[in-house]
Amino acid sequence: MAEKLVVSTSPHVHSEFSTRRIMGMVILALLPAGITGVYFLGLSSLCVIAACILACVISEWFWNKFVMHRKNTIGDLSAVVTGLLLAYNLPPTIPIWMAVCGCVFAIIVVKEFYGGIGCNIVNPALAARAMMLISWPTAMTTWTIAGMSGATPLAAMKAGSEVSVSLWNMSAGNMAGCIGETSSILLILGGLYLIWEEVISWRIPVIYIATTAILAQLFGHGAACTEVLTGGLLLGAIFMATDYTTSPMTAKGQYIYAFGCGLLTALIRTWGGYPEGVSFSILIMNIAVPLIDMYTEPRTFGAPKSNFFKRTEAKS
Amino acid sequence: MNLPTFLGGVHPPEGKALTENKAVEILRPEDTREFVYPLALHIGAPCSPIVKKGDVVLAGQKIADTDAFVSAPKYSAVSGTVKAIEPRMAFTGAMEPSIVIESDGKYTPAPTLHDLLGHKPAPSEYVKLIRESGLVGLGGACFPTHVKLSPPKDKVIRWVIVNAAECEPYLTCDNRLMIDSPDEIIKGLEFVLEIFPQAQGVIGIENNKPEAIRIMTEHNKNPKISVMPLKVKYPQGAEKMLIKSVTGQEVPLVPALPADVGCIVLNTRTTWQIYQAIANGKPVTERIVTVTGDAIVEPKNLQVPLGLNVRELINACGGFSDEPVKVISGGPMMGIAMRSIDVPVVKGTSGILALTSKLAYIAEEGSCIRCGKCVEACPMHLEPTLLDHAVRRRDYATFEAHGGMNCIECGSCAYNCPASRHLTQSYKNGKAAVNAERRKAAAEAKKKAEAK
Predict the structure, then answer these.
(1) What pLDDT does residue B41 have?
(2) Distance in angstroms (rounded) separating the CA atoms of residues B188 and B368
């Protein structure tokens, strides 16, 4: 028997987790909310979703192939997730060309300029959304769908008028809003699936949502349940704030990060210039992550228990 | 039920079902063949041969020894003639100077250690006898046992822990040993407790070995010894993790030793062998090897003489059922992939694991996505991805500053990594580089001092 054995360092077995598999599960968890979005908000939403996914994947493929001349990474499905998330954060009436611009910005400027997957410092989809909100404020805040025109519940709250959507419609997704953010029930189900599969931990979504709900009520902005069910809070807390690359790696860091997101969201919703603050809160906390990581480095097994600020020097 | 455990770790598929219910078979070739004994030890100083080409040796005769403290002598498992002293391939893939013995198939016994000593050993002579028997950590690390049993005088040993966790997937040799000869293990532990009268004995067993736990508990009549079931989690059997699980204490950072927290940890087979050395005067000449994996026709636990060719073990298990991609000495998490199966069984060969491409594929490395799964898995509470980046840019100062030298190379981080990054390899490189730098600095300092 001719044997040619492979020699490599241990370990010789590997868990079933791979980047591609994780991204696949995130896509699966996101799908139901998107389908409901299309059902309630119309077929134009489907066009936006399709355009965003295509634009993101093509941008990444183009960049790797013609600019960097390196192995293509579209197979890891992370570009699909970025496209899907950006689409979910856009109103259904957005012109397709604007959505495509957002996607190119997300992939090329926010992700690839910094080195590609794992190297970006802010969430590509959210950064693109922020860019679009500044560039095309009207298109980004118009929710005119047949039978459902007008302001989102949060915009109504900001304007000081009554919220006319029932709690049931908020939960199911039958209200004005971005494509993927309206169906609270399905977003929560998607989140539970990801926690069950150990793709994400409960820490960031639960603490983020709880902090926003409690603080917004304390600040006198609105009832806790309305805060949770409206706007992009669920989508942001479950799917965007938990983005691996732009969130802290340790449990302690994740507590701080999630609390920061929640605090900023409540502050912006109550006193900020925009009705919604999820995107900006997460973006601000994203750039704080390296700092959080630095101060929450775990104590090495066996190292003396040390003072908070002396943590890094205490190791030898 | 909350069983004692540590923080971190992973749950790789166990693969123990292949062999855990099979009694140990004895493989003792009775024809003429070569047995090979490498002179180098995995850890410690190499031995020098005390036989020469053409000498006749007996089974259980000492063939190599050294004056170095951190080392242990070597014994021939067979009777026969010294055929050569020449470099042969060891399981690490390196060519090591080795003593080659042509066996006569008769296993004519040499005088025992007791015969040589002239009397039954007293407790004060135990450690010397254990060194003389060639005992090293038989779990795989091969650290000389008498060194462990000679802690600094100012340390009080309060726990002697028998490491029967056997957390490495696939391996069942310790499990079978506990089922087949519980009394010898307990007596071996009692001998060690005679050396350390202030200590209590604990036999720590992962909870996935209910039969071993039952049998050990039943056979233990000594109030100073307890059997402790532990949570099933890799690497429960890592020395520091086991001490944490059993005593709740953390061994301080390197270079601290278990003795600093009053502990001595001994592998199951080592404890059994201590009994053999002290009660029967037998040196280390045999061991149980788990021959398993999805590429083996009939996985088995084999009791084999040391120095036997690994190929014979695989043949005794029906050979390969499928083409193996990797043949590993040890378990899948910390074992060493072998270049060839024509290498001898040594003291640390706990398992021979042959895996097909289905399990032992090498996935392509992707970029770190900062998912934190390595941080979650690390039982030493390091940040593996941070250290990996530091090593890859050759920033060994950062590697050291963030505790890289404390890595126990258990492989949990690399097992968990979705991007299949070769994290463990990075730390091995990093640790080697730091050690090389330290040696260089020490040599330079010495030179300077001499110049003055």
Answers:
(1) 72
(2) 47
